[in-house]
Task: inverse folding
């Protein structure tokens, strides 16, 4: 990094201008970016009065040379870019030289670094001179917007402004696990991340130990890092999703959509994952200079970025586990929000059986025990007792099989002895015509039979003949409601649902065994294609605890 200098007018003009400081959270974001650009390892943020009274950020980064401190508050003064071409490949979070000047124009700011101190209010330097000789930079912003009543009026409630500040800190804490973030709001410690590089620990500091223990880490890809939730952890909102490019949190609907697409068939409708994902993109291939607060970016090769994200997320999701039953749900675990690595007890490695007890089945094998209740199978697995929802399980198995047939184009259908006529809305007849070949790959064949009906001539081999009519209706509705791959996936899910054993069907032992082994061998077997869980595991450990066999 070079000395702070005022940008040449042509460079300043090339910078996306606009409102930089809209609310207290924007000031926090800018100050955190500066600290991270200075390679700080510890950043503490102290907020009072929802950021209107004061925001104090101290870091232990490189600091500002004493004689450059006043310059840092001059508009378009920066040490991060110099020439116009630097804007083509920005590697720092800041680059406009605007943040400190903007903050100081709407607040009372005191900053100190390297033994120097400056006090600026509403853009006027009030004092400058000697300051404390401490590492890094400390900036205190007081009375934000006191001189812009209009802006003050637009602020939301304290709770909302505090939540926005917290979200900013959370995003950076999750994306930068090697930096210790400490946020205190009105004297109360709100976030304290470990800063030891342990991503899971960073997650624990934000989402609690229980969630952190169950997150899946993205591994093995140099450019995509982060964690994503298994299907069994989900949220009713998208608030748990943090996406970033080169360490910079961004909002991007298409990227969020690409992420959620990976959960297609794993999460129920209306549920969203928890995630923090950072995508490394060559600085020359991403333009961060498109939005005043740098929230949005433009990719040169958008498709490649989405593909990298999806590859990474899908690979991580491969390690998803079924839901494990917890008797004392989270008691003692959630209470201590500290992340303790020994909480991750779901591996078979935990299993310790007394000598002489019957040896459990090998990994990947479920020993059927029987059918209970209206439609559950009980089995013994290596980790413990496994309860299976027979319909959800069969749906998953059939769905995967149907998708395979779709991929290969090799259908497996059974002709109906008595073709069945179905009356349909013309839009559904059109949907069928549009997807005729794909439907045949799924095993569904038909003839047109007048303008408002189809005659079904064949259905997937697995489908009981009596269900053809309802299945066709729902399949075509699925097709007409979605587009592209999604449409065929939904159609396959509808066919799987109508072909699967029902909740309530009696299965003989051979059928039970077959279903359990098919389920064990199925990919993404943790949920049915609609995102409902297929099974619940009651670990041996859980039983041991319950029956007090642990002492
Ligand atoms: P920008 O970050 O776009 O360069 P800012 O107004 O945020 O603009 O900061 C101006 C300059 O002040 C930066 O370029 C940097 O040299 C210096 N600076 C600001 N905050 C810090 C900090 N926490 N640590 C080190 N240098 C800083
Ligand atoms: Mg900055």
Result:
């Amino acid at each position: 990094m070079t000395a702070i200098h005022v940008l040449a007018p042509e460079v300043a003009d090339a910078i996306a201008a606009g409102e930089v400081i809209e609310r207290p959270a924007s000031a926090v974001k800018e100050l955190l970016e500066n600290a991270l650009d200075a390679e700080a390892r510890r950043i503490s943020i102290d907020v009072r009065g929802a950021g209107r009274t004061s925001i104090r950020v101290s870091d232990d980064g490189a600091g500002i040379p004493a004689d450059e401190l006043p310059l840092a508050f001059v508009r378009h003064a920066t040490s991060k870019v110099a020439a116009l071409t630097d804007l083509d490949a920005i590697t720092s979070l800041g680059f406009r030289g605007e943040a400190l000047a903007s903050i100081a124009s709407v607040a009372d700011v005191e900053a100190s670094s390297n033994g120097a101190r400056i006090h600026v209010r509403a853009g006027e330097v009030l004092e400058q001179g000697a300051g404390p000789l401490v590492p890094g930079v400390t900036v205190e912003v007081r009375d934000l917007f006191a001189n812009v009543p209009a802006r003050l009026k637009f602020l939301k409630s304290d709770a909302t402004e505090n939540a926005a500040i917290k979200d900013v800190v959370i995003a950076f804490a999750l994306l930068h696990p090697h930096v210790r973030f400490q946020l205190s709001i009105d004297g109360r410690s709100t976030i304290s991340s470990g800063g030891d590089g342990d991503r899971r620990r960073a997650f624990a500091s934000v989402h609690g130990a229980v969630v952190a223990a169950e997150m899946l880490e993205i591994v093995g890809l140099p450019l995509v890092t982060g964690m994503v939730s298994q299907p069994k952890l989900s949220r009713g909102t998208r608030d748990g999703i943090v996406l970033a490019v080169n360490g910079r949190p961004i909002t991007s609907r298409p990227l969020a959509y690409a992420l959620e697409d990976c959960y297609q068939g794993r999460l129920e409708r209306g549920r969203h994952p928890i995630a923090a994902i950072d995508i490394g993109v060559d600085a020359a291939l991403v333009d961060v200079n498109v939005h005043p607060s740098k929230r949005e970016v433009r990719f040169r090769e958008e498709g490649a970025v989405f593909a990298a994200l999806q590859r990474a997320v899908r690979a991580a999701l491969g390690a998803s586990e079924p839901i494990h039953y917890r008797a004392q749900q989270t008691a003692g675990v959630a209470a201590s929000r500290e992340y303790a690595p020994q909480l991750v007890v779901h591996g078979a490695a935990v299993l310790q059986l007394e000598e002489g007890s019957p040896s459990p089945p090998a990994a990947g094998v479920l020993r059927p025990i029987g059918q209970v209740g209206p439609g559950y199978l009980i089995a013994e697995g290596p980790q413990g007792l496994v309860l299976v929802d027979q319909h959800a399980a069969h749906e998953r198995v059939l769905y995967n099989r149907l998708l395979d047939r779709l991929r290969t184009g090799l259908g497996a259908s059974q002709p109906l002895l008595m073709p069945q006529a179905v009356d349909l809305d013309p839009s559904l007849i059109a949907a069928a015509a549009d997807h005729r070949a794909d439907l045949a790959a799924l095993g569904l064949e038909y003839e047109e039979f007048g303008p408002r009906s189809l005659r079904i001539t064949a259905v997937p081999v697995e489908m009981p003949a009596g269900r053809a009519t309802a299945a066709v209706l729902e399949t075509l509705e699925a097709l007409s409601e979605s587009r592209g791959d999604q449409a065929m996936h939904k159609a396959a899910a509808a066919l799987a649902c109508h072909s699967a054993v029902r909740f309530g069907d009696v299965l003989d032992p051979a059928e039970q065994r077959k279903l359990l082994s098919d389920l064990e061998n199925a990919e993404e077997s943790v949920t049915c294609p609609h995102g409902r869980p297929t099974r619940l595991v009651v670990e041996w450990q859980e039983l041991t605890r319950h029956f007090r066999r642990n002492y």
Summary: The CA atoms of residues 42 and 180 lie 5 Å apart.
